[in-house]
Design a protein that fits this description.
Structural class: alpha+beta
Oligomer: single chain
Strand order of the largest sheet: 2-1-6-5-4-3
Number of strands: 6
CATH architecture: Roll
Number of domains: 1
Length: 165
């Protein structure tokens, strides 16, 4: 009986240590994902196409605010990024970041709201309340964007429906 109790205690200890290790790994992955998401606009600020290439997976999907902005794969996304890099002095202010990590810790879905101030020519401009959502995945040792969607909310509903309970 004594051996049985000791075996149960050992089994519980091993199970707890494995669970704790997984929790620590998920916490670390969540921190890495948060850092990556917070830095996703650095290529804009640095005006660097090379830096942009490092954050997108080769088969990523980018959906922009314009109906024509649906890009699949880095080769298509690259063309859009080149156009976006014409924006001068971009400043991104983000808020309301929400991240949902996969159980394996190698993929995360995120949403956030951002405001973008910039210059086009010599004219200052601002776009507020851009909704940015996406999925990032750890590929090898690096996090990459595999899907990203930007949208700007409409006043009112695009399709009318009752929003009461």
């Amino acid at each position: 009986m004594k051996n049985y109790v000791l075996s149960i205690i050992a089994l519980i200890s091993v199970a707890y240590s494995c669970s704790n290790t997984n929790t620590t790994a998920i916490e670390q992955a969540s921190e890495e994902a948060t850092d990556f998401i917070n830095g996703q606009f650095d290529y804009f600020t640095n005006n660097s196409l090379e830096e942009a290439k490092t954050i997108w997976s080769e088969d990523a999907v980018l959906i922009g605010t314009d109906a024509a902005e649906y890009f699949v794969g880095w080769n298509e996304i690259k063309i859009a990024v080149k156009g976006m890099l014409a924006i001068e002095d971009p400043i991104f202010k983000t808020r309301d970041l929400n991240i949902i990590m996969s159980d394996s810790g190698d993929m995360a879905a995120f949403t956030q709201i951002l405001d973008l101030t910039f210059e086009m020519g010599e004219e200052p401009a601002e776009v507020k309340d851009i909704r940015n959502s996406g999925v990032i995945k750890k590929i090898g040792e690096s996090w990459k964007i595999v899907q990203n969607h930007w949208s700007i909310g409409l006043e009112g509903q695009a399709v009318e429906y009752d929003m009461t309970e």
